[in-house]
């Protein structure tokens, strides 16, 4: 729809060029003629291309770097809509170059490609999830080991304190048993610690042997 009036614009531009020409040759500023005909730069380029394809004109020199545009005019016949449509075979062929089968195959291939990408991403997500679960399980196992080690350490500390207290009691009983001078304590003195009793029996047996 945007190109339906191109034939009218091209006809106006052609008429303007003819009015500004000398013996079928235009030399001057093309943008001035196009502006008077109501064309912007884009439509001017389209109209010039259409007129060249129809054989109405030939651009001998383009107006670049301050130079004037030189155009040879072969015909001033107005451009018809049919002429403008017939001059665009390449665009029409390009639009009709794809069949429904080709479009369908391209769509299916694209969907398969997306499915493969989704499958790959899903596999990666599952692998990452399994690795994360394994790490969480390992961390929980290490935490349990640490708690068990802490419990064993606390138990050993309790046992060590109990052994130290037992040793102190044994030393105190031993000191009381020997009385500081190597003499056994009196018969009536009670001794409750088993180790101290064993030491006291040894001392008594040695005293009797002497």
Q: Output the helix-strand order.
A: HEHHEEHHHH
Radius of gyration: 56 Å
Helix content: 55-70%
Based on helices, strands and strand pairing, what is the structural class? Answer: mainly alpha
Summary, kept brief:
The chain is mostly helical. It contains 7 helices and 3 strands, in the order H-E-H-H-E-E-H-H-H-H.
Draw up the topology in text.
Layout: H1 6-19, E1 25-28, H2 30-37, H3 41-53, E2 57-61, E3 69-73, H4 81-86, H5 89-95, H6 100-178, H7 194-209
Antiparallel strand pairs: 1-3, 2-3
Helix pairs in contact: 1-2, 1-3, 6-7
Structural description of this entry:
By secondary structure, this protein is mainly alpha-helical. Among the domains are: 6-95, Winged helix-like DNA-binding domain superfamily/Winged helix DNA-binding domain (Arc Repressor Mutant, subunit A), CATH 1.10.10; 174-209, no CATH class. The protein has helices at 6-19, 30-37, 41-53, 81-86, 89-95, 100-178, 194-209; strands at 25-28, 57-61, 69-73. It has a 3-stranded antiparallel β-sheet with strand order 1-3-2. Helix 1 packs across helix 3 (41-53) and helix 6 runs parallel beside helix 7. The N and C termini lie far apart (137 Å).
């Amino acid at each position: 729809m945007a190109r339906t009036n191109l034939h009218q614009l091209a006809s106006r531009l052609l008429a303007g060029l003819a009015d500004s020409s000398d013996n079928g040759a235009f030399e001057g500023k093309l943008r001035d003629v196009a502006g008077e005909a109501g064309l912007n730069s884009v439509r001017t380029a389209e109209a010039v291309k259409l007129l060249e394809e129809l054989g109405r004109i030939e651009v001998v020199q383009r107006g670049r770097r301050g130079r004037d545009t030189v155009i040879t005019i072969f015909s001033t016949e107005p451009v018809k809509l049919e002429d403008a449509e017939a001059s665009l075979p390449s665009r029409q062929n390009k639009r009709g170059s794809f069949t429904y089968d080709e479009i369908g195959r391209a769509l299916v291939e694209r969907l398969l490609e997306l499915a493969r990408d989704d499958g790959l991403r899903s596999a990666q997500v599952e692998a990452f999830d399994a690795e994360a679960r394994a790490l969480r399980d390992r961390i929980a196992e290490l935490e349990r080991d640490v708690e068990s080690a802490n419990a064993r350490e606390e138990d050993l500390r309790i046992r060590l304190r109990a052994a130290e207290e037992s040793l102190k009691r044994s030393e105190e009983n031993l000191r009381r048993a020997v009385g500081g001078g190597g003499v056994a304590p009196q018969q009536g003195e009670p001794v409750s610690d088993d180790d101290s009793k064993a030491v006291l029996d040894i001392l008594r047996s040695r005293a009797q042997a002497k």
